Amino acid sequence: MANLLAAQGGRPLRDGLADLATWLGVTLVAGSALWVVADVIWHGVGAVNWGFVTTAPQDAGRAGGISTILVATFLVLLVCMTAALPLGLGAAMYLSEYGRGPMGRWVRRSLDVLAGVPSIVFGLFGAVFFVQVLGLGFSILAGGLTLACMVLPILIRTTEMAFSGLPQEYRAGAAALGFGPSGILLRVLLPAAAPGLVAGLILGVGRALAETAVLIFTSGYVDRMPDSLLDSGRVLSLHIFDLSMNVPGGDHNAYGAAVVLLLILLVINGIGGWLSRRWIGRGIVAS
Amino acid sequence: MSRPLADKWFRWGLLASAALSGAVVVLVVLFLLVASWPALADLGPGRYLTDTRWYPSGGLWGMSAMIVGTLLSTLGAVLLAAPLGILSAVFCHYYAPARMATLYRRLVELLAGIPSVVYGLWGLVVLVPIIARWHPPGTSLLAAILVLTLMILPTVALVADSALGQLPGSQVAGAYALGLSRAGVIWRIAVPAARRALATGTLLATARAIGETMAVLMVCGGVVNLPTSLFEPIRTLTANIALEMSYAEGLHRSSLFVTGLVLVLAVVTLVTVADRLGEEPTGG
Amino acid sequence: MIRLDTTGPTPAEPPLEGATAVPHSHSPDSDATVPYVALDRVGLSYDGTEVFRGVSLPLYRGAVTALVGPSGSGKSSLLTCINRLYELHPGARMSGTITVGGEDIHGAGADPVRLRRRVGMIFQKPNPFPMSIRRNLSLPLSEHRLPRAEWSARIEEALTAAALWDEVKDRLDHPAQALSGGQQQRLCIARALILEPEVLLLDEPCSALDPLATEAIEQLVMGLKCCYTMLMVTHNLAQARRVADQVGVLWGQGQPGELVEFGPTAQLFDDPQHPVTVAFMQRERA
Questions:
Q1: ipTM value of the model?
Q2: Looking at residue B280, what is its pLDDT?
Q3: What is the DSSP pairing of strand C246-251 with strand C92-100?
């Protein structure tokens, strides 16, 4: 009885402290998040206008805009997705349909390890394998391909989940209509899994866009308009890094580029969400 | 092409893409090994720990300062991010009204989606000057810890959030029925029951902190230094690679690949342990 | 094209390439004497566990054969032997022989894809693909490389045969999954008919449907009877009695299923021979 009373006596204080700690912690987190976003927008939004997006950088980026950077970023993404999408789709189909054997287990484990590799290490790998061994040099092609290696695990994992989440009845139904394995996968399961595929693609593009460390030693620093995929090109995130670290007086345009980067990410995520909602809306109305 | 033949080719195509995807990690490790071999053979792994300083052109290969830099910044960030992340999840489940919880989750997701270079930019332009006013030079272990904390916090928060969400409601109701207060239910029942998932989230966050390059590179100062206080500049292993790779030659370059190899080993070990933890049932 | 009892006798269809199928004939006596599908001591095991064994069963053109029996006796698995769908299960092994139109389904040169085109299947749960109604029907046509010019005519024909045309003709491009359960099942029947099969396998096609939709499907099955060889699994004895011309009882409580009795519907219901059948009929009736 005495113990119980003692415990009750101490309780309100301790509970109050726990509540206080929670509210404090959350305020801190929310405050910091808003601080970062607000700071970037506050400093950067003044730099962004049509001219900023359409003119080439001048004076190491202090003046001018980011048109060439945007082109290089787009090309790197294009190379990355062109390489990673078919490969990832094929691998995901293999894993979801035939992946129960030792081969499937091995591929899954390898991808898990690959997902853990730090991005700077992908940069090292790309600098040796694509730049030197395959002789691509510092180029958009080398950067995009290295990036493809990095986004492969996330692409395959989301795609595989989309496929294996489909009801077994689709497979049996298609097989009973005389569809061969390729028909079942490409004509029935692929369209049915489309929303999941889009989500995976968006995730992959987002990761690739945000990435910097992979590209320092693969696609290079050159900020003029790339002539071809074998030309060096500087992506947006690397441009932000370079302006803020190596170019005195580059902060203003660095913030401008950061706002553009955040905007692109926001738009891509928005499109992804909209697309998959639309797809789901069309597929499973009132089922 | 006849259908059976087409199906055969199709299946081979799938197998080939799966094999190629699985082979990427083998290629990565293989080329890291090949490129770091000269350094491992000529210098031996011991030199990196026994040499006192990092001075490649002078034949000094000590990495201990950078290893300590990586460990301290990671440790500091995890010590801050883990409790904050868990508090965030607790807040969403037990404190916030539904709409506020959704809003807060969006905020954490936003935090997760910000590219690391943007964190670096913010750290460099906003955080570092503030620290510098207090205790120059500003670019410091503290700045690295704070920026890293923000970056890995969402990892802990999102994993903890889903772990608390999976707790059976009957457990929580039962605890309330025993007369426990809200804080009692949270800290004596819910959080201990989710401890395995919380550990998983923390390990994943640790792995992320160790491997993070750009944001840390931008605010840590880049000086190879065994820090004696939070305000001294440091250099992490990842920052070392990013800073020197562009001009390193020979053994120096090879040494950077050794660093890469060590990073892969550390991160992969952490992720594997986290996966193991995550596979087993929560609360067991 | 798709045969309905209202369309009257149609000329024999040219056999599919490589097939040695007997040409379609609608003279009742040839239907009655030569089974179009014949199962001879067929057994199936999953990963070494026998599901059923020793089933011999003749299926005639123009007749519905019902397969009844307690759940777990392997009725549905038996259906998947006839179109080789059991092969989707990696550990499944079939014994015995099945001929469709005189051709051994496992014989040299036999191909599951070609077989499944001749043997349509309707599943327990309606399984339209998550696409438009039209796409559900055109997909099999395009998979089997039928000329695009024929598509719309075939779609209309199949939907008419499945008694769905009037209900959906104005919304062919709406998602199939927005249809009601009964409509979905009729769409699945249309999807099977569009390939002009010779045999239809129906796996408890009404078990997920309400009584009204069930009646519609039963009507449909009886209307299709003239022109197809049909095997229907059902757990509903009254349904078997209404629809089927001959009935088989598959029995297996805790052990591999066996065909304990087989015969014309009236005989089986009014004068069952095997004690197991007698007991089963009584229990179901109660």
A1: 0.92
A2: 62
A3: unpaired
